[in-house]
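User: Here's a chain of 341 residues. Predict its fold as tokens.
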Amino acid sequence: GINSNECENISREKKIPEEFEASTMDFLVDMPFATVDIQDDCGITDEPQINLERSKEKERIKIDRVKKRKPKRKDYQPNYFLSIPITNKEIIKGIKSLQNAVIQQDKRLAQTMVRDGSFHITLLVMQLLNEDEVNIGIDALLELKPFIEELLQGKHLTLPFQGIGTFGNQVGFVKLAEGNHVNSLSEIAETANRTFQEKGIRAGESRSFKPHLTFMKLSKAPWLRKNGVKKIDPDLYEKFISHRFGEEILYRIDLCSMEKKKQSNGYYHCESSIVIGEKNGGEPDDAELVSLSKRLVENAVLKAVQQYLEETQNKNKPGEGSSVKTEAADRNGNDNENNRK
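Assistant: Prediction complete.
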């Protein structure tokens, strides 16, 4: 039911879009970006790919949050240290008087006191995880001896103690008086640190070296915090603020364990020692005698073990064991013949 005029109009409408599309495509081909893949150039990706990357990103964020919640493991836990033992009886007596004065004012603090046999100056802390590393530490300590003797040039290093200080009101210590001796001691500590680290030993602290003689630590009695004792009250040691405790001469440096059982005199377990110069009178003290005795016993045991191993190896060598048995049999045979005669 369509007349001829309508058909002609429809055919014209179809021709116009087709002609327009063809001319448009010819125009676009002549443009400079005609050969560019717009999808790749603009970073347009498929929807599934976008969702996959988003899910991966969310998973990474979740893992990072879990890692942040976990407490960081402390790989470096010092368990050994270089110690300068305090042996001057005058200093020990003064510290005990200080401790008694504090305890009289607050008896609960008795458990925070350091035993008199444990008084020392810490020169360096380190981590030694096994016997091999302990032996390396001993070697490093022995290497320090000539350096210290060269530094002192035959003179004594005198360490005078005067006054009281604290670390954050948690650790109480007797101060080392100011003077050139502090520089010498600091130089020894720096050399010790370098020597141990060069041998692959993890040593040292983040804070700078501050020589001190500890006499009390609140950490020795954690229950005190629950009872309201959260810091050391300066009034407890007020009378000793400027007290002169005496002088210690650097005579010995020990490699000590923080964890092994202490000696009977209260001093730390000692792996090895070096002696600097000569002590007054040249007489060794108890700690040195104990260390010397230990080394003598260890050397004797080592020699016995080596001798036993050598004898065992000789017996197991082919031919030797049989010859020994043959000689023994010949001797037994001769003895029997002689007995018969």
